[in-house]
Design goal:
Elements (H helix, E strand, L loop, with lengths): L2 H19 L7 E5 L5 H9 L4 E4 L2 H10 L4 E4 L8 H4 L5 E5 L2 H14 L3 E6 L16 H8 L5 E7 L7 H21 L2 H6 L2 E3 L6 H7 L3 E4 L1 H4 L4
Parallel strand pairs: 1-2, 1-8, 2-3, 3-4, 4-5, 5-6, 6-7
Helix pairs in contact: 1-2, 7-9
Length: 228
C-alpha cells in the first residue's frame, strides 16, 4: 500500500471510531507524522487527502514546509533554542513547549516576524523519566506565565502515553483531558476559550485517545511504514 492508501485507511477508521465514541469526525484532526520520510511520500499522503503534517526536526520542517507551504505543519520534537527561528512561523502549531526560556524566545522571534505563534504545553502525565514535559502540577502556573507573552498563544496540551499498555494509555489520555478542564477553570475567560486542543495518541494508541477526547492525533508509522 502507498502512503495515499494508508492515509485513507486511517482516516476511514478514524471516522468509524469517532462515530462509535459519539463525536463528530470534524472534532479530531489527523496529523500525518512525516518525520521519517521524504517529500515524495508527503505528496502521496496529500493525494490521499492529508493536510496536516508533523515534523520533529527543524531541518525536516524547513524542507517539507517550504515544499508544501499550503499545508499545515506541526512541530512535535524537542525544542532547541538556536533553532526556534526556523520553527516559528513555519509551524502552525508547536506541540512540545515546556520551558519558559523557550517560550520567551518563541515570543521574541514571533514578534520580529509580526505573528502570534500557537503552542501546546507538553505534559509528562505518565511520570516516565524517559519522557519530556511538565509535571501536571506545574501546568497552571506555566500557562499563566504564557499569558503574559503577547506573541505566544496557548492552544492546549500534549502528552505521550507509555507504550505497550492500551489500558494505561487510556488512563493517561483521560488524565490529560481532566487537566485541560482544570486548567481552563483557572484561566481568564479569553485565554480559557483558546485552550481547546488535546494532542494525544499515536499509531498504536490513537483510538484510545479519541475515546478520551483527543482533538489532534499524531500518526506516523500507520501511514508511512509498510511494516506497521
Amino acid at each position: 500500500m502507498s502512503a495515499r492508501e494508508r492515509y485513507r485507511s486511517v482516516r476511514e477508521e478514524l471516522e468509524s471510531v469517532c462515530e462509535d465514541a459519539g463525536r463528530p469526525f470534524e472534532t479530531v484532526h489527523l496529523v500525518a507524522v512525516s518525520k521519517t520520510v521524504g517529500t515524495d511520500e508527503v505528496a502521496s499522503a496529500i493525494e490521499g487527502g492529508a493536510s496536516d503534517f508533523g515534523e520533529n526536526r527543524p531541518e525536516g520542517l524547513i524542507e517539507k514546509a517550504d515544499a508544501f507551504p499550503d499545508k499545515r505543519w506541526h512541530f512535535i520534537g524537542n525544542i532547541q533554542s538556536r533553532r526556534i527561528v526556523d520553527i516559528v512561523g513555519r509551524a502552525s502549531l508547536i506541540h512540545s513547549l515546556y520551558q519558559f526560556k523557550h517560550a520567551q524566545k518563541i515570543n521574541d522571534v514571533a514578534q520580529e516576524k509580526g505573528i502570534v505563534q500557537d503552542v501546546l504545553i507538553e505534559v509528562n502525565v505518565s511520570g516516565e523519566e524517559s519522557k519530556s514535559g511538565l509535571n501536571p502540577r506545574e501546568v497552571v502556573e506555566f500557562a499563566q506565565q504564557l499569558g503574559e507573552l503577547d506573541h505566544v498563544r496557548l492552544r492546549g496540551l500534549m502528552t505521550m502515553a507509555p507504550q505497550g499498555d492500551l489500558d494505561r494509555a487510556r488512563e493517561v489520555f483521560e488524565e490529560l483531558a481532566y487537566l485541560k478542564e482544570l486548567l481552563c477553570s483557572q484561566l481568564d475567560d479569553k485565554m480559557a476559550a483558546e485552550v481547546d486542543e488535546l494532542s494525544m495518541g499515536m499509531s498504536e494508541d490513537w483510538r484510545e485517545a479519541v475515546y478520551a477526547g483527543a482533538t489532534i492525533i499524531r500518526v506516523g508509522r500507520a501511514i508511512f511504514s509498510e511494516e506497521f
